[in-house]
Fold this sequence. Notes:
Layout: E1 5-15, E2 21-32, E3 38-46, E4 52-61, E5 67-76, E6 82-88, E7 96-103, E8 109-116, E9 124-131, E10 137-143, E11 151-158, E12 164-171, E13 180-187, E14 193-199, E15 207-214, E16 220-227, E17 233-240, E18 246-251, E19 263-266, E20 272-280, E21 283-291, E22 297-303, E23 311-318, E24 324-330, E25 333-339, E26 345-352, E27 363-366, E28 372-378, E29 381-387, E30 393-398, E31 411-414, E32 419-427, E33 431-441, E34 445-448, E35 456-458, E36 467-468, E37 478-486, E38 496-503, E39 510-514, E40 539-545, H1 546-552, E41 561-570, E42 575-585, E43 606-608, E44 615-622, E45 626-634, E46 639-648, E47 651-658, E48 665-673, E49 676-684
Parallel strand pairs: 1-33, 35-42
Antiparallel strand pairs: 1-2, 3-4, 4-5, 5-6, 7-8, 8-9, 9-10, 11-12, 12-13, 13-14, 15-16, 16-17, 17-18, 19-20, 20-21, 21-22, 23-24, 24-25, 25-26, 27-28, 28-29, 29-30, 31-32, 32-33, 34-37, 36-37, 37-40, 38-41, 39-40, 41-42, 43-44, 44-47, 45-46, 45-48, 48-49
Amino acid sequence: MRKMGLIVVAVSLALAASASAQVDTAWVRNWSSxxxxxxxxxxxxxxxxxxxxxxxxxxxFNVHAERNELWTVLSYGLYGELNWTYRFDDTNSIVxxxxxxxxxxxxxxxxxxxxxxxxxxxxxxxxTLKLSxxxxxxxERRYNGPLNGSDVVTAVAIGxxxxxxxxxxxxxxxxxxxSWDFHTxxxxxxxxxxxxxxxxxxxxxxxxPSAIAVGGTGEVCVTGMSLGLTGGTExxxxxxxxxxxxxxxxxxxxxxxxxxxxxxxxxxxxxxxxSATVRLGGDTNMKSWKFNSSGGTLWTHTYDNPSxxxxxxxDQALDDKHNLYICGWSNxxxxxxxxxxxGSRAWTVEFPGESYSYAGSPVLALDPQGNLVLAGTLTGRPxxxxxxxxxxxxxxxRGDIEYSLGYNSVGLHEDASxxxxxxxxxxxxxxxxxxxxxxxxxxxxxxxxxxxxxxxxNTGGIDLGYHGVRPGAASANRPSxxxxxxxxxxxxxxxxxxxxxxxxxxxxxxxxxxxxxxxVDPRETECECTTAGADGYTDLVLYFDQAQFVAALGPVNDxxxxxxxxxxxxxxxVPLAGSDCVTIKEGPIRISPLASAGEKSETGFAAxxxxxxxxxxxxxxxxxxxxxxxxxxxxxxxxxxxxxxxxTPAGEHQVSWDAAGWASGVYFARLATSAGxxxxxxxxxx
Length: 686
């Protein structure tokens, strides 16, 4: 008998600004037990701190050569270290099958599945386990349906308050092919049963859920197949309140034969997105629905491949703009497409001529940049693809180990840290489990001179008005150049190690955490800049010595645009790289914060008095009527006041700025007209 083991592979992706991937194998791990025969991964998830959790079905044989199945749960750390294993083996059961897995905000692991009931291999009961972040069993709960028949778990979800929802189908007519109803249970975080709900369709036939999702207000949706009154199966979706009250139900077309796995998402506003398999005519298609919070259908979308052969959705994901991404399988190969928020199709990417396994793949997730990541198998090898939100191919990773994907044998999970986990099994003399972690290190958004556009660096030694300070009098109030690493929804700058940061070979004088700017649209050109201010996400502002910064540029020409790369690492050693552009000015600067206090231009743009105490008057003149925007910014690029924002007639104009309540220091008045933009430095002295 061949001893089977777990092979674990981690792949690290270091992505440059062009989004091309440098792929390196970070680690390979083997795990086995002396008496394990066959192992196959069923489901996986990732904890908030980045650990990968894989739940496997393990076939074993007792001393009488009788086959038995048990659960094995494995936890791998960021660097592939095996944190812990947990084995669930019910000595009274022959078959134990994990079906679904999830993690809560504390890193606890929830696993739900089925075990033998009173009639081995004929009857099953729900079983739900909660493990601590360290792999200890916190509690175990079982559910035996009303007729003591076969009760099978299909999905699990966790609410925002840590409540656990388990759904599946419970047998109502005894026998191997009896009839089943939806049975959904809500547990408290401590394992107390809050409510149990049964749904039996009016036709009295099979009602079998396949997906569950929880909304932001605790409302829960369950979807699956149900026998309709016309005798055919239909797609059924139920929505319960947090208290377990049935709010609404929705059914698809009669005889639509909802026979494949369903995928479900619920938004905080209660809207529901559903993808399922329907039979429309002679073949099956992928169909998606959007319901409003009351169950009304807002739109439907159907995908039928060009050859009109069978199509099966296997996974879906929503981005923050409510675009729906769907992947699946067809007789033509694999397919991925995007459905816009209004229900229209944005694009379709097909992989024709390559064989995907029917039920287990592909699966998908969205990475921190909003790009699509798909995992599956092509011609017997694992593949992971990345597509942009516009359907463009970004990168492809092909595994070195040949294996096949079977039913319930693959999962993919993407978290905000940019790590992708997937697992599959390999068929050889026996069966192996293959798990992989791909780390997508996307370049952070960098903003030199945040809030200023264009980013002009004067090589004549004029003080930009920024001063970085670090401990020690020698560095206090030293003229400096601020460079911000911008935080976003998916990138937390507190993960960055400031001591590792360099730009143009320089280390920063000091750094601060604050909200100063927002990233430009990634589809813009490399040197695009913005004057946009705070966006609600904390940024890391680093101050570099101004004289050293200018010297590091080397020989330059007036008007030259130079791209500068910032490099560094996170606190866990993950490499970072990003870039921004500066424009070189050797002479007087008109569009910059460098003009001397009180200096006037041909438009009469000046502040007087300057320096000032409490209030100053900003004056400017217009040759023709113009749309005028006059703002005041602090040295961090934050807008502190808007003095003019209106269509303004030609002539001389003056406006007062009352700086009461603002601290002493340097501020900038920026004037934007149809003729261009100018900035003047103002000094507030208390």
